[in-house]
Design goal:
The complex is a heterodimer of chains A (361) and B (651).
Chain A: H1 9-19, H2 21-38, H3 40-43, E1 64-66, E2 70-73, E3 76-80, E4 87-91, E5 97-110, E6 114-123, H4 142-153, H5 156-178, H6 180-195, H7 198-208, H8 215-230, H9 232-246, H10 249-256, H11 261-291, H12 309-316, H13 319-324, H14 331-353
Antiparallel strand pairs in A: 1-2, 2-5, 3-4, 5-6
Chain B: H1 2-24, H2 49-57, H3 63-66, E1 72-73, E2 86-91, H4 98-103, E3 109-111, E4 118-120, E5 123-128, E6 134-139, H5 153-164, E7 185-189, E8 193-197, H6 205-210, H7 212-215, H8 222-225, H9 236-248, H10 254-261, E9 276-280, E10 288-293, E11 299-300, E12 312-317, H11 320-328, E13 334-335, H12 344-354, E14 356-363, E15 367-372, H13 379-386, H14 388-396, H15 400-408, H16 439-448, E16 469-475, H17 483-496, E17 500-506, H18 508-516, E18 522-527, H19 550-557, H20 568-581, H21 586-603, E19 607-610, E20 615-620, E21 623-624, E22 632-633, E23 649-650
Parallel strand pairs in B: 1-11, 2-12, 14-22, 16-17, 16-18
Antiparallel strand pairs in B: 3-4, 5-6, 6-8, 7-8, 9-10, 10-12, 13-20, 14-20, 15-18, 15-19, 21-23
Helix pairs in contact in B: 9-10, 14-16, 20-21
The chains are: A alpha+beta (361), B alpha+beta (651).
Membrane topology (chain A): Multi-pass membrane protein
GO biological process, one term (chain A): transmembrane transport
Organism (chain A): Nonomuraea aridisoli
Chain lengths: 361, 651
């Protein structure tokens, strides 16, 4: 008797996904980024608050190598030319800052509970300064800031996206599947929420949020509130798809077989438009990262001293930076990588989850 | 499938494009093309070719009929100029009318070039009585508004009566037009001699009249404005018409409409006496405002050429970054206000190649300071802020050298906010109190003041057991000393002394609301050091918009009916201001002013941090007659107007 090979929907998706080369690259990239975010304290050469008034706008330093010192840079001291206002950095070639791996430095706590002070790479003497990617306007190490920034940029924004997704799926699904007065009520609620003007709402929030709250806390709450308002368009789309699929033969067959409602929804209906949901979500993630600072003018968005990619990039968007300190635009590379990775993964998922998609075999 | 590939490719490109957009966002400018400045014309011509054409066409009377009998003669700062050209400027907000203060000023008198006193302007002569009670102006004969109608002393008298005397515009006369709470007496003799007399001496009146933002309010075209003013409508029928016109224009009441029609920044129909009249206001649709020369302007150069030399002014509304780029690209001809200090380095790099100069003027209003709310709603905090030791401790705990080094490359000026030596109110050594970074001293002073207990995080506890947590409220602004960065540094420094600081950047509306409702701990703002006597509220709480004691200011302004009664030391400041305002001699005024400054210096009611080393001014290399000394850039002196813009010209 021939054995019948069985593969679950999930296995099928995974098989197809693995063949999607770009998506796999994206997945690896995302994995690395999240690992870096988790280990930021260890990977960053300096701590979050570390800065030096002598090194504002220090350009990137390329380490040299010698057998005597290993990797090293020469220490620098910045000075502003009173005539041209240029930042002049003089290298003290008589001294070296030795660099090493697994060096002791600023203390940190990994994942909020593992204390440590060993850094992957940095100056051997914790008092010395070293800027692989240059320094920002307060003389803080940009590389360290990019690592710490990933913690916020790759997490908080996603909370909002996740909440919108859950609410949209749930309420849109309920509305579309049951129809009738449930649909009526939910649709009217959606219309009500959509009609709330956002700017006065933000202004109100700006006044209502206690000033003692840190920027992180404020931003988190705002994200949550925005996602409580932002699920409506997704819910509308989901409802439409449900209405469409509800009448199809396989759903009817399942109903006649007495399959429970939840199973009908999750096994028989959702998979047919999972691809659409995935595309929506993967597109809204980058928007969220870039929108981090958009409310800063009201004191609601992320702002210093919080470190995130959005905040770092906001600093980079001045004429002075573009002309005199272009290295401050480095965080854009991180954002672009993250955005591209999310899009590739989303795209791959979409293709593999689509039951009507091209079979890659 | 083709569609599949194209979508995926699009995703990839989308990511890359996002990055490009991020990098490129600072590099975009406005849309309106800029006309290059034009110069030239016949050096012998006495009027601009632009006006000569109109005279030829018969739409304008000849020059001698437009000028007054005795025009005001302005000696050019460097050389007599030629007519023509468009002066290109930019600003960050269409709501700001400061370009009119600088370029369209008109007053009976104006600042002398050294900005120490008054010189006649629309008036041909001006006298002040010895006891500062009677001010006499003889208005020039034959002055005309920009529509050709005559300007007379009656226009000024009407402005005082119908504008300053109207409760809808001014609940009580503003401080500069107040004679113990009522209007001064106005007399006109032989049609030209205007006398403004006060019962109480008004020592500051001369300075007020020089302030271009104040003096222009006395110069209103009543032949035009009377149609919008209900008191000037003769019959009931006419009054109803005034109201109806206001309603039709979308205003709630006639006074709002009047103010709108009287706005020289917005209304091209309103006749002016200043050098320029707006021809195209900046509105929601248009990102550019345009001004044109006033054909009836009353000033000439010594050779009899009618001023201004430059025909037109163009003002673009731009984002800060775009504005800085325009300046760095040499696209702005004369600009000091709205320029970002932090971009100076870029201006300097480009100056030679792009044909402009970067002048360094005195910054008049950039000393970043922290105003503790001495009239705080919370009695515990009020008591703490009123304790001199706490204020001194907060000052000593700030490492100003570090802030200066990090943010201004060490070039900034460290000072407490009081007058500088440029002003008579300065006493040797003022402004140097408690500048030194001395953490031990700060801690000792806070201990002395009773803040000895600390919580687990190391924050001191107030006498009522709550942590000593303060919130600093400010408008985020990076065009001068970057405020968030500076206060962020202060937060770190104060934390070392056990004082917890939270930053609260807010927008303008919320800032105004928070202050007027006396609902803040600390106010972070740039404080003017000089010419504060024109706006005493910065150093004496004379009104509820005081930055360091709004409730006391409210008490003073309402004569004790509202607000909170201040403690003796603040009352003394108020008494000193009263003495100053009603002084009968300059000596008495200066004496009292010095005492106010000394009180500030000794008591540190306001804690200064750092001031810009200079105000960058971008000037087209072809633009002549810009002052080459270092005048202060200050609203009270008309900002760029301090260089007498009517005599600027393009070589």
């Amino acid at each position: 008797m021939a054995t019948v090979e069985r593969a679950s929907q999930r296995t099928l998706i995974w098989r197809r996904f693995r063949k999607h080369r770009l998506a796999m690259v994206g997945l690896w990239l995302l994995g690395l980024m999240y690992a870096a975010a988790a280990l930021a304290g260890f990977l960053a050469p300096f701590g979050k608050d570390s800065h030096s008034s002598d090194h504002a706008y220090q350009p990137p330093q390329i380490p040299s190598f010698s057998f005597e010192h290993g990797f090293y840079v020469h220490p620098t001291a910045g000075r502003t030319d009173p005539e041209t206002l240029e930042q002049v950095f003089t290298e003290d070639t008589s001294r070296v800052v030795e660099l090493g791996f697994f060096v002791k430095g600023d203390p940190y706590t990994l994942l909020g509970f593992i204390p440590g002070d060993v850094h992957l790479f940095g100056p051997e003497d914790p008092g010395e300064r070293f800027y692989l990617l240059g320094a920002d306007r307060t003389g803080a190490d940009l590389l360290s800031k990019i690592f710490f920034g990933s913690q916020i940029s790759l997490s908080i924004g996603l909370v909002g996206v996740g909440m919108s997704l859950v609410l949209g799926l749930l309420l849109g699904g309920v509305s579309g599947y049951f129809g009738g007065w449930v649909d009526l009520v939910i649709q009217r609620v959606i219309e009500f929420i959509m009609s709330i003007p956002t700017l006065p709402l933000w202004l109100g929030l700006a006044a209502a949020i206690p000033p003692q709250w840190g920027p992180l806390q404020t931003y988190f709450i705002i994200t949550v509130i925005l996602s409580l308002l932002g699920w409506t368009s997704l819910a509308r789309v989901i409802r439409g798809r449900f209405l469409q699929v509800r009448g199809e033969d396989h759903v009817l067959a399942a109903q006649l077989d007495g399959v429970p409602k939840s199973r009908i929804i999750f096994r028989h209906m959702l998979p047919s438009f999972a691809s659409h949901v995935i595309a929506t979500v993967s597109l809204s993630v980058p928007t969220m990262i870039l929108a981090e600072t958009s409310l800063s003018f009201l004191g609601l968005g992320l702002r210093a001293p919080a470190i995130s990619w959005g905040v770092l990039l906001q600093d980079a968007q001045s004429v002075r930076t573009v002309v005199t300190a272009p290295w401050l635009m480095m965080p854009a590379v991180a954002v672009v990588l993250a955005v591209v990775a999310f899009n590739f993964v989303g795209d791959g998922l979409r293709d593999s989850a689509d039951p009507y998609g091209k079979r890659s075999s | 499938m083709a569609t599949n590939i194209s979508r995926r490719t699009l995703f990839g490109y989308g990511g890359a494009l996002t990055g490009v957009a991020l990098l490129g966002v600072a590099c975009t400018g406005g849309e309106t093309p800029l006309p290059p400045p034009v110069s030239g014309g016949d050096p012998a011509a006495l009027e601009s070719p632009m006006l000569a054409q109109r005279v030829k066409a018969g739409t304008l009377p000849p020059l001698d009929q437009r000028l007054p009998a005795k025009p005001m003669i302005v000696k050019p700062l460097q050389e007599a100029g030629r007519f023509g050209g468009t002066l290109r400027r930019a600003q960050t907000s269409a709501a700001s009318d400061t370009v009119t203060v600088a370029f369209c000023a008109a007053g009976l008198v104006e600042w002398t070039l050294d900005i120490k006193g008054a010189q006649p302007s629309l008036a041909e002569s001006y006298t002040r009585s010895d006891d500062n009670r009677v001010y006499t102006f003889v208005v020039r004969e034959g002055l005309k508004w920009s529509d050709g109608q005559p300007f007379t002393a009656q226009d000024v008298a009407d402005s005082i009566q119908h504008f300053f005397g109207n409760k809808l515009f001014n609940v009580q006369p503003p401080v500069y037009m107040s004679d113990g709470g009522k209007l001064p007496k106005v007399d006109i003799k032989d049609g030209r001699t205007l006398t403004i007399s006060f019962e109480e001496p008004s020592a500051m009146f001369e300075k007020f009249m020089c302030h271009p933002g104040i003096s222009i309010q006395l110069v209103k075209p009543w032949h035009y404005l009377k149609q919008f003013h209900i008191d000037l409508a003769e019959t009931e029928d006419d009054k109803a018409k005034v109201e109806a016109a206001a309603k039709a224009a979308g205003f709630d009441s006639w006074d709002m409409y009047f103010l709108d029609r009287d706005d020289i920044w917005k209304n091209p129909e309103r006749p002016v006496m200043g050098a320029y009249i707006v021809t195209k206001p900046a509105g929601a649709q248009s990102g550019t405002a345009e001004f044109e020369r006033n054909p009836y302007y009353f000033k000439t150069d010594p050779d009899g050429r009618q001023l201004p030399y430059i025909d037109k002014i163009q003002v673009q509304m731009l984002e800060q970054d775009a504005l800085d780029l325009r300046a760095a690209n040499g696209d702005l001809d004369f600009q000091a206000q709205f320029l970002g200090y932090s971009t100076t380095q870029v201006y300097l790099r480009n100056a030679e190649a792009r044909g402009f100069k970067v002048l360094r003027w005195e910054p008049g209003w950039s000393l970043l300071s922290i105003n503790p709310n001495l009239s705080h709603k919370d009695p515990v905090l009020r008591k703490l802020f009123l304790d001199k030791r706490v204020r001194f401790a907060l000052s000593h705990a700030i490492n100003r050298e570090e802030i200066n080094k990090t943010l201004l490359g060490g070039l900034g000026v460290l000072r407490q906010p009081v007058s500088t030596e440029a002003e008579p109110y300065y006493t040797q050594g003022d402004g140097d109190t408690a500048l030194a970074f001395d953490l031990a001293k700060a801690n000792a002073l806070l201990d002395e003041a009773g803040l000895t207990e600390r919580d687990a995080a190391g924050t001191r506890l107030r006498p009522d057991g709550k942590p000593f947590e303060l919130v600093i409220t400010f408008i985020e602004d990076n065009s001068e000393v970057p405020r968030t960065d500076a206060f962020e540094a202060v937060r770190r420094h104060w934390a070392a002394a056990g004082v917890k600081l939270a930053l609260r950047p807010v927008d303008k509306t919320l800032y105004a609301e928070v202050r007027s409702s006396n609902d803040f701990d600390l106010d972070g703002v740039g404080t003017p050091e000089n010419s504060w006597d024109i706006e005493p509220v910065w150093y004496v709480p004379t009104a509820s918009n005081s930055h360091f004691a709004p409730a006391y200011g409210n008490w003073y302004a309402s004569k004790g009916k509202a607000g909170d009664e201040p403690p003796a030391e603040i009352k003394e400041l108020m008494d000193l201001w009263d003495t100053m305002a009603t002084a009968t001699s300059d000596q008495e005024r200066i004496e009292a002013g010095k005492k106010i400054m000394t009180a500030h210096d000794r008591n540190l009611y306001i804690i200064g941090i750092v001031r810009l080393p200079f105000q960058p001014v971008v000037v087209n290399a072809k633009l002549r007659n810009v002052r080459d000394d270092k005048p202060p850039m200050l609203f009270h002196y008309g900002r760029e107007g301090v260089t007498k813009p009517e005599q600027l010209y393009f070589a």
